Predict the 3D structure of the following.
Amino acid sequence: MHARNFSVVAALVLSAGIGSASADTAPRIDVVASPTVAVHPPGAAIASAHFLATQAGEEVLAQGGNAFDAAVAVAATLGVVEPESSGIGGGGFFLLHDGKTGKDVFVDARETAPQSVDAHKYLGADGKLDHDKALDGPLAAGIPGEPAGLAWVAKHYGKLSLKQDLAPAIRIARDGFPVYPRMVDELTERHDVMQRWPATRAIFQPQGKPLAVGDIFKQPELADTLQTLADKGADGFYHGAVAQQIVAAINVAGGDWRLDDLAGYQVRIRDPLRLKYHGWDIVTAPPPSSGGVALAEMLNILSAWDLPKLAAATRVHLIVEAMRRAYRDRTFFLGDPDFVKDMPLARLTSQAYADGLRKGIALDKATPSSSLPGAPPPKVGNHTTHLSIIDAQGNYVAATLTVNTAYGSGLVAAGTGVLLNNEMDDFALQAGVPNAYGVTGYDANAPKPGKRPLSSMSPTFMIGPDRVAVLGTPGGSRIITMVLLGILGFDEGLTPQQVVSLPRFHHQYLPDEISIEPGALSADVVKQLEAMGHKVTTRSSTWGNMQAVEWNRSENTLSAGSDPRNPVGKAQVVLAGGKQ
Ligand code: DON
């Protein structure tokens, strides 16, 4: 096992702002792994982006549910209390580890393109991609996958019924919950779009007034739809009255969905992508996520260096150069594996390929990404959500769920309370034209009927000889670099709370710049990076909303961390004898 050090801890704790102390100054403490490790965790740990969702997970655990039941309860509740981030009108990925069999599965509940999809429909009269069509309203929405994902996880892995797992979400949708600032900020940002459809206005502007912080937000129609899902399973959403209302709403608004689009939706059960880094087995997202391939490339490149020993600027430079190269490959090669049969996955994730890429990295000089034209700066946001869970049976779940950008397409299907996603923007709707996150793509990610758009969502497990970590985050194209920094943080011995608090920097090939959170790097480090030829751009705000839990098997302790950038998140450890 790679010796851990705590060299960066002092620099990383974030409470009110981002820590900015130098990473090089704190003392190093090496910890030697214990040869004996616990077989079962001493309880459960849950971290999610909203306290009511974490509590929903605790509730089903107390009823005898396992981590999978808790994941369904937490995910469904997040969809109710964070409509800006995820919901049954969207999709996501669930990464599951079964403590009994040791098996890992990746439940791909990503949205699919409807049969009618046609890239030309997204172009304006000038032949250019019309971002309004890609992001707002009926053409922006993909066929939702989350309802099928929830039903599949409960049926195949839960101990309780789907009805029991969905009960907290239904109750909160019916009784309401207090509106918090992020909901209002993002409603304000999406105001024009949320105005367009009467069913959306009726929910998000009750009595014609915008929601305000502290209002009790109730969603009775969504509660009914969730109840139908609970009673009938996935059929309750994909067939019958709910399906008819969704198809009607899309078509009235100018889209073209058929009942078959919903009736034909299936989750895909995939083998997770596996890689090794410094003695950790990393289990993460395969295509149609780009996350696992990019993480493999970056970690394989970085594995040759002892990163904590390097000067701070050199460490950032090398990580950035790894990011740049992985995002370049994302652009050209990756898409839905059910459609793109010639993805060179074995090559991209091989050590030999990374060794070759590493040879092109100078220790003190940036490599320009200048082979393609520049792109506008990507949007930054946290309009997606993540949950991480470990239970007392040694089951783990990491799930990242989304409606894509804030409040998805803005279109609520009348009568259902279901806010539809805008995941179609994750396709390369026009080759080489940046999407909302500034990432581009070509043929591999071109839209096709039934195809899943390429994602960055990267729910991840890190399995070490004596520690297990479960992590993930929203953040569009930045998800992968955040998970990378999280993996490096766990590898360096940080706790979950320290990992989720890490200051963040990001590079995605194009635009050719390192973007950093305010204060994430010292002025001196920025100066050194600039001297190497990097452009460093400080964003006006932070990004991400990481949730992580850890089981230390040599100490048999559990710990959990919820991103301090999001004040309503909650990390909770529940020990067998009561709360910690
Ligand atoms: O699947 C993806 O990669 C995106 N739709 C995720 C969107 C996201 O994380 C939004 N947060 N900024």
